Amino acid sequence: MLTSMGQEVLEDYNNFLALEKVELSSGKVRFLKTVKEVDSNIKGSEYINKHRLFWEYLVVNFSEPLQENTFDPNTEISLLQNNFLSMMVTDTIFSPLVERYSSQVVKRNSIKDTISIDQVLNVAVKFFSIEKITPEGDYSARICVGLNGIKNTEAVRMPFVEAFAFYAIMKNLRNEQYNVYTYFINAIKGIYKLNLGIDKEERLLRAQGALFIQMLQSDRLMELLVDEYQKNKDILPFALSL
Fold first, then answer.
1. Partner residues linked to 29 by β-bridges
2. Beta carbons of 211 and 187 less than 8 angstroms apart
3. Per-residue pLDDT band at 5 (split at 50, 70, 90)
4. Distance between alpha carbon 121 and the CA centroid of its chain, in Å?
5. CA nearest neighbour of 86 among 2, 181, 176, 208
6. For 76-91, how does the pLDDT look when each residue is reduced to its tens digit (9 = 90+)?
7. pLDDT in tens, 29-49
8. Helix count (H) and strand count (E) of the chain?
């Protein structure tokens, strides 16, 4: 059972997960699930510490969301940690992912899924988002999680591939070796050359599709993803087929 003290990092959620309490400017209190730096003396700490963005993506997007009244905002945060960890251990979305990762990467007693570079790219391009059209008719775009187009386009989700793509993009967003951010900005500028519709909603959907295709055609984005896979393949729970 994952609540007990274990011999390696994933066997005790307290090793890498924490509940954070944030007070908003409005005075309201918000609780956030976070992935913390793991003590390097703990066996397998590198699985988390080298890939914290990967794990943060999984925690945020593949676990049951916290309800507004889940925790009492007046309670000391240290007193809430055990309840939070118990929730995560019994989470029917997140906990199976931890077990699968442990089996495929840590214990290596199950075979990794083989994923093609096209499958990774299909996911990666959807982090580049045109989220709305302003009242002035301009595109409002960002590179993001939460507002991305994955949940609206992927009938079958691939949590580990999504987490890897997000990690790789955010880590290298301003890396001049790949110039992905510059390509993203230029892609949006190119979309302005097209009249994509009079109806705002139709125009937004077409613009988003045009951006996906532009990013799919980026050789540098593919290079970035392949390079990050090669650097991290020993701690990734899938094998990449090029």
1. 23
2. yes
3. very low
4. 14
5. 2
6. 898 999 999 999 999 9
7. 899 999 999 999 999 999 999
8. 10, 6
Do 16 and 55 form a contact (C-beta atoms < 8 A)? yes
Residue 200 contacts by C-beta under 8 Å, 6 or more apart in sequence?
133
* Token representation of residue 48: 């988390």
| CA dist., res. 17 & res. 20, Å (int) | 10
Find the helix packing angle between 117-124 and 200-216, rounded to 10°: 140
Task: Show Cβ contacts of residue 26 under 8 Å, excluding neighbours closer than 6 positions.
Answer: none
Instruction: State the Cα–Cα distance between residues 188 and 145, nearest whole angstrom.
Output: 18
DSSP state of 69: T
Which amino acid appears at position 179 of this protein? N
Residue 14 corresponds to which tokens in the numbers above? Answer: 């307290």
**What confidence score (pLDDT) does residue 151 get?**
86
Contact 154, 123 (CB under 8 A): yes
Residue with tokens 């580990």: 160
Distance between CA 128 and CA 169 in Å, rounded?
10
Q: Residue 8: what pLDDT?
A: 85
Q: At residue 97, what are phi and psi to the nearest 5 degrees?
A: -70, -40
- What's the whole-model pTM score? 0.91
- Per the listing, tokens 């007193």 go with 79
Does the pLDDT at position 74 exceed 90? no
Q: Enter the tokens of residue 116.
A: 């093609």
The confidence score (pLDDT) of residue 2 equals 40
Torsion of Cα atoms, 86 then 91 then 92 then 93, to 10°: -150
